[in-house]
Structure prediction request, 105 residues.
Amino acid sequence: MNQKTGLAEQLLAAVSTVDGLRPATPATVPKTVRTAWNVDTLAVDVSTELVEIRLVAAKLPLPGLLTELEAAVRPILADSEVPDARLRLVVADLDRAALDQGTVS
Prediction:
């Protein structure tokens, strides 16, 4: 495992701590496909300038979820090989469950 893959795995672990968010993986890669690597790492891009995590939200409102995730991710980045990289959290999709909650805000 290289350093960027290791960092992506740590960031995905942080995503898993926030109820209502999950990694956004391509629709062409079903969860039932068995691979030798974690398909969810496709949702994370790491460079020296930018770390981007693409997400699917299953709950609303988004600001609280993203604030919670940012708080979980910042310490990981601070201790990584890219401590000065900008963080971009992209909500690429909304799960139908988020819209079925009733109030959209």
